[in-house]
Amino acid sequence: MFQKLKHIYETKYKLLMIIPLLLLVLSLVQLGIQYKTTGDFVNKGISLKGGSTITITKDLHFSAAELEKSLQQQFPADDITVRTLSSAGRITGLAIDSGLQDGSKIDVLTNALSERFALQKADYSVEVVGSSLGNNFFKQMLIALVFSFLLMGIMVILYFRVFITSLMVILAAFCDMVITLAVFNLTGMKLHPAGIAAFLMLIGYSVDGEVVISSRLIKRNDGTELQRIYGALRTGWTMTQTTLVAVIVALIFVQSEIVKQIMLILLIGLLVDTIVTWIQNVGILRWHLEKKHKKHFGK
Amino acid sequence: MNNKIKKMAANWRVLLLVAFLLLSVLAIKPQVFGTEGVEIQSLQASSPLAEAGLVIPAKVQPIARERILSVDGIPTPTVDDYYSAVSQLRTNRTVRLITTEQTYTFLTPESVDGKIDLGIKAREASTSNIRMGLDLEGGTRVLLQPAGQISKEDLETTVDSLNERLNVYGLHDIVVRSASDLEGNDFILIEIAGVTEDEIQELLAKQGKFEAKIGNETVFLGGEKDITYVCRSADCSGIDPYAGCQSYEGGYHCRFAFQISLSPEAAQHHAETTRNLKTVSEAGSCYLSEDLALYLDDVEVDRLRVGCELKGSATTDIQISGSGAGITQADAVNDALQNMKKLQTVLLTGSLPVKLDIVKIDTISPSLGKEFLHNVMLVGVLALVAVSGVVLYRYRKVVVILPMVLVMLSELVLILGFAALAKWNLDLASIAGLIVVVGTGMNHFIVITDETLRKEAQDLDWKSRIKNALFIIMGAYVINLGSLIPLFWAGAGLLKGFALTTIVGMSVGVLIARPAYAAIVKILLEE
Q1: Best label site of A56, A216, A255, B244, fewest CB within 10 Å?
Q2: Is the Cβ pair B483, A128 closer than 8 Å?
C-alpha cells in the first residue's frame, strides 16, 4: 500500500497537484458563502467588530448556555454570547461578549453579574473596543498582508534569482492562509486581532520549509532529484513535527483564550502547509526542473 | 572530549554568543538572592513624603528603583509588613522612613476613617530588569483618537501634556506614545500598570481646557504661558484654613485653596479687565461687580469674588479656590483635595489642543496577569520537553540535543536582555513574538543538523555543509523580515510589540546564536 502511494507520489506529481488546487477552490467557495451570508469573509470577534468582552476567571459552576439564555432575556438588545473558558479540560471561567461599548451600560452588566455570582473586582477583566477601530483594524490588516506578500516575493527573487520560487512561496503562503481561514470559519470561532497575528506567524513557519526545498532542489546537485526531495521533506517534516507538538501542548494547557486561538490557527495552518509543501511546492519545482532539462538537452 | 571543549572555547562564533549572553545577563540583572524592602509603585502628589523630597523618576531600570526598607524603625521586607507598619502610625508624629536612597523625615497626616494614608502604593520589589507589560502585571490600556485632523506638532504636544498629567500619579511605568496606522490616522496609546480604568478615564476623556473669565473676557488660560507656578506643597495649598469644612444639607462641604503665579502678560491683562469694573460693598467687604469665573471644559467649576484692592492691579499672585462635598467630613475633605489636584493638573499642563475620543480600553486585573505569566511559563517548559522528545526521537544523539536546547534557551536570554536594555514592556503580543522566534529557531537548528548529518552531504567538507545550512537560514530570515515589516503600522501599532520582538529575536538568532550552534555541532561531530 505504502509502496503504491510512493509510486503515485513519485510519478504522478502533476496529477496530485489537483488536491491542493481543489482545497483552494473549496476554501474560496467557503469564503464566498461566508461573505454572502454574513457580509464578512470571517467571523469577526468583538475586538474587530466593536463591543466588549467581560472575562470572568473563576469557575462559577454555571453553564455558559444557561447564562447566555438568561442574559439575553435580561439584555435583549445587546447581542450577548457566553463562552466557557477551559484549560487542560478543566473549566477556568466564562467570557461574555456583547455589542456594548458604552462604559455605563457595561457597568450595568458587570454589576448584574457581580451581584449574581458574588464577584470581586479581581475576578474579572473588561475589554472594550469602539467600532471605528473595529472596521479600520480589519481593513488595515488586509492591506498589511498585501504588502507582506509583495515584500516577501521581492526578497525571494533577490535571494534565489529564480522567478518560479518567488511564485511558489507567495502561492504557498496564499494557499496556507486562505485554506486555513476557511477551516477556521468552519469551526465557528470568532477572530481576535491576535488571531490575525497567527496568520502572519504562519507565513514565518511556511517560509522555513519552502526555503529548504528550494535550496535543496535548485541550488544543489548532490544525489538524484528524488533523493533531494525526500531529504528536504524529511527535514521539513521534523520541523513541522516539533512545531506541532509545541502547538498541541500549548493548546491543551494554556489558559488565555487569545493564545489558544493563535495555537489553533497555527495547528490548522501547519497541517494545511504540509499538504501544500509535499504536493504543490514539490510539484511546481519538479515541473520547473523538468522543463529546464528539456530545454537544456533540446529534447 | 577535552580537546573539543578547548576548540569550542576558541571558536569565535561560540565566543560571540557567550559574550552577548554575559551582556544580556548584565542587562537583566536577575536578583538571585532576592531584594531588600518593598518597591514604591506610585506616589501621590499630596503625600507628605512628596513634600519631604521623595520623587519617582520617570525611566529607571526596575532594579534601580527606590525601595522602602523601614517605616518608623519597623523593617518592611514584604508589602504586608509595609502596610502593617503604616497602620501603626499615629497622627501628627514625626516619622522616619528609610529607603535605599536616603532617610526621609516627615509629619504624619490626619487620619481618614481612622487610617493614615502616606499616599504610597507599595509592591513587591522587582527581581530583574525585565518589565512586565499590562497583560502580565495588570493595569489599564487606552487607545485614544483625536477628534478631527491634527498636526504632527499638536499630536506631540498632546502626548507631552498627557505624560505630564499622568505623572501627577507618580507612577513608574507609564507609556504614552503616538501611533498611526496605514491610512495615516493618528492615535495615542497609553498604558499604565496598576491604575484602574475609572481613575484615568476622567483625566483623559476631558480636553482639560481651563479658562478664567471676568464677565465675558478671558483673563488667563491654563498652561505654562499664562501660569508660571502652581503651588502644590502644604504651606500654600490644601483645605482652606479660613473657610474649612461646614455641614450642609445633611452632608459636608469643604473648600480648598492654592496659590498660583501669573505671567506678567496675564497679570497685565487682568489689570486691564478689572480697571473699569464697578465696586460693590457686601457685608462690610468691598468686591468688584463681576466675579472671576473658572471654567473647565466650558463648564463653570467655580466663581470667586474679587476684592476691590485688586481693581486695575497687575498682580501676579492669585489664590484659586474651589470645593468638594461628601456625606462624612472625611469624604468631603477627600473630594475637595481630589478636585484641587485635578484643577492643579490642568493649570500646570494646560489644555490639550484637541478633544480625544477613547476607542479602546482594556483593563487587566493584577491577579489575572500573574496567573497568566505562571501559565505561560508552565506551557513553555512543557513545550520544550515535548519538542526535545521529538528531536531526540529523530536524531537519537544527546550530543545534538543538548547544545540545541542550550542554544535555544540562550536565544531567549538574548531577547530578554535586549528587552531589558531597550526598556520594553513585555506584553501578550511580545509573547506571541517569542513563540515565533523559538519556533523558527527550532526549525533552523534542525536545518543545520540535517545539512551536516545527511547522507548526501557526507562527501562534502564541513565548511560547505555549514555554508549550505546558513544559506537556507539566511534566506528564511530575509523573507520573513519582508513579511514582518508591514506589521509595524497595521492596527495603530497594537501589533508593534509582536513585530518588534519577532524581528529582534530572529536577528539575534540568525546572526549570533544559530551560527554558534553550527560551530558547536561541527566541533562535536567532526571526526
Answers
A1: B244
A2: no
Confidence (pLDDT) at A299:
46
What is A112-146 written as a DSSP string? HHHHHHT--GGGEEEEEE-HHHHHHHHHHHHHHHH
In CATH terms, the fold of domain A51-129 is Alpha-Beta Plaits (3.30.70)
Assembly ipTM = 0.77
CB-defined contacts A:B, below 8 A? 227
- Tell whether B431 lies on the interface with A, counting CB pairs under 8 A: yes
C-alpha cell, B121: 502604593
Question: Which of the residues in chain B have pLDDT under 50?
Answer: none
B38-127 CATH pick, 3.40.50.12280, 2.40.30.10, 2.30.42.10, 3.30.390.50: 2.30.42.10
Q: Does B383 touch chain A (CB under 8 A)?
A: yes
Q: Nearest CA to CA, how far is A216 from chain B (Å)? A: 9
The residue among B230, B239, B232 whose CA lies nearest residue B112 is B239
Minimal C-alpha gap between B434 and chain A (Å): 11
3-class SS at B360?
A: strand
Fold of B139-207+352-364: Alpha-Beta Plaits (3.30.70)
Give per-residue pLDDT as tens, A266-275.
999 999 999 9
Q: Which residues on B lie below 8 Å from A204 (Cβ)?
A: 436, 439-440, 480, 483-484, 502
Q: Could you say which of B143, B361, B446 has the minimum Cβ distance to residue A242?
A: B446
pLDDT tens track for B133-191? 776 777 777 888 887 777 777 777 777 777 766 665 555 567 777 777 666 678 888 87
In chain B, the residue whose alpha carbon lies closest to the alpha carbon of A249 is: B383
**How many helices and strands in chain B, by DSSP H and E?**
15, 23
Shortest Cα distance, chain B CAs vs residue A4, angstroms = 25
CA-CA distances (angstroms) from residue B358 to A106, B143, B205? 15, 6, 7
